[in-house]
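User: Can you help me understand a structure? I only have the sequence.
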Amino acid sequence: MMTRINDESPIADLHDETSEDRSSNLSGNRPFAEIVKSALSRRTVLQGSVAGAAAGFLAPRAALADPAEETGPLRRGRLVRFKGVSVEQATVDQTLPTISDDYTYQAFIPWGTPIEPGATRPYNGEPDRRPTPEEASKQVGLGHDGMWFFPEAPEFLDGPQRYALGSNRRGMLCVNHEYGTNPHALGKSFPESLTDVRLSQNIHGVSVLAIEKSFRGWDVVASPNSRRITVNSRVAFSGPAADSPLLQNPAGNVPLGTVNNCGSGYTPWGTYLTCEENFNGYFGANGAFDPSARQARYGLSANGFGYGWHVFDKRFDLTDPAYVNENNRFGWIVEINPFDGTELPTKRTALGRFKHEAIAIAETPDGRVAAYMGDDQSNDYCYKFLSALPWREAIAQGVSPLDEGTLYVARFNDDGTGDWLPLTIDNPLLAAEFADQAEILIFARAAADILGATPMARPEWTTIAKDGSTYWTMTDGDGVFEGGGAGYILNTVDANGSAGDSFIWTIFYLCSDSAGDPDLAFDDCDAAYADPDGRLFIGTDGGQLYGLQDQVVVFDTTAEDPQPVRLLVGVTSDEITGWTHTPDQRTAFTNIQHPGNGNPALTNFPLPYDGVTIPRDATLIIEKKGPGKVGS
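Assistant: Let's start by predicting it. Here is the structure, written out as C-alpha cells:
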C-alpha cells in the first residue's frame, strides 16, 4: 500500500497517498463496523489481550490446535523470547533502522543495484543524476514491497519440499517495486518527455534476483533467470477472462506490463505471485474525461496520482479511443516462475480484478488450493478463490490451478459467522448485470457490490497460520470500536479446511489496545506473515505513537494472551513491508520502503546521514546473533 504522509516534505506532496482512504463504494452494503457493534451487543468477539473471547467464537480455532501444544514446547511465551526494541532506542537516530539487540541486519539490494553483477552502471543515490531508462531496466527498482525467497533445491523436490528443505545460502529472491514519486525517481515534479516517463515506468514492477551467501555476507550473483519485469515487459493473460473483448484494444497492442506491485504471495508449486494494487493512479486524461460508473468504482480519474505518464504514453491516456481497455489489463494477480526467465509473467484472471494487496494460499483436505485476498481501499472487500482441481493434478496436466475455480467475496454476520458468496454468472442477480463470467471477473468490485458483500476497513495482507486459519490485517480502525482505532488483525476459519462456503471470524488484536504501553505500541498494521511455528510478523504503514517510525512486531499466536514484541523500527517517513526467510528460518528478509519519502534532508538510508545523498529503498537481511530462528 502507499503510506500516509507523516512529514512536511514537499517531495511527499506530489503523490496522492490518501486514495485508499477515500471509498469508491456506493453500494450501501452494511459495513463491518456495524456488524461488530451488533456482535458486541450480543457477546464478546475479541480474543487475546482485549477480552476473553466467548467460547463459541474460539471453538473453531481450539478445534484445529494440537492439544499437546497447550503444555508442550509451544506453551505461552516459548516462541518469542528476544529482547524488544524500546522507544528510547528507536528514537535516538531515525536516519537508520534500529533492531533488537539480539539481531543484526545487512542493507541489501537498494534501488539502483544491478540485477546481475556488471549488468549496468549502479545508481548509488547521487543527487545530481538519476539512472537512464536503459539502466533502470537492468537495476533493482524503487518502492520495495512484497517479496519471497525461493531456495535452490534439487528438481525432484516439489514446491513445499523446496521451501522446507532447500538451500539456506542460495536461491532466487523476488521483490515487488510498488511506486516511486516523480521527485524521488526523476528529481522533478512532472515528466518532461517520454524518456522521463520510461524511467518512471522502469523503476516500477518486479525484480527477480539470484542471491548467495558467502563469508562476506549475501551478494547478488549471475543467473539466466535474473530479470526485471516492468510496465513495458511482455505478459500473458490466462483464465476465464483471457480472451474477453474487454481486454482488447482497437490499437491491437500486445499485453504489456505490471505496475504498482504491492503485496505478494507464493504457490505450493514454487512460483511467485505479485499483486497489482493502485494501478488507477498511472492513468490520466489528455482531454475531457467523465468516468463511467465502473471506471469510477476503480478510482480512474483525469489526473491520476500525478505521474503524468498519459501525457507522453498513449497507453495510459483514458481519452485515447485506440487504448480504451488498457486500464482493464491492470488490477490482477500475476504469476512469475522464478526459475525460468523465458516464461512470460501471467495474469490469472480467475482471481478477479481489484486493488490486490496480497495473497495467501492454503491447501484444502482434498488437495485443492484456496487463495485469500484483500482489496485495499476503504469499504472494500475480502475475497477467496477455490481451485477446481487439486493442485498436483492440475500441474500434472500442464494447467494452472489458478485458472479454473470459483471466486468468492465475504459477507460477515453479527453472530461471528460469515459466508463466502460465489461471484458466478449462474447467479441471476449477476446474470442480469453482466454478459458473461469474464465481465464479472474484470469488474469484480461491481459484482461484489450487488451480492451484498461486507465493506471492510481496508483489507491489507493475508497469511495462513500454523493452525490453518487466515489472518487479515485491516489498516484502518474505521470506527469499528468506540474511539476509532489504528487498525486491527482479523482471524477467519473456513468450514471444511478452507474448502467450505462459510467461516467463523474473531478479532485477534486491536492495534489501539497497545496504545497505552510504549513497549507494545504499534499502529496501522499492514504486512503480515505467519511462520510455520506459530509466530505472526506484522509490518506497519502509518504514523506511529511515541515518536516511532514504522516497525515490525512479532506475536506468539499460541500464547494465551498474545502481545506484540518490537523487532525492528525503520527510518523516518518509511514503511516496513514484505517478509520472507530461508528454509531454516535463521535468515529473514524485509523491506524499507520510501525512506524519508525520498527527501535526503531526512535520511540518506542505506548510507549514513549526510543530508545530500538520495535515500533509496532497500531490503534488510536479518539474522540472529546466536542460535535460533528470526523472531524467536
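Now, to help you interpret it: The chain has one domain: 10-624. Confidence is low (pLDDT under 50) at residues 3-15, 48-77. Let me know which part you'd like to focus on.
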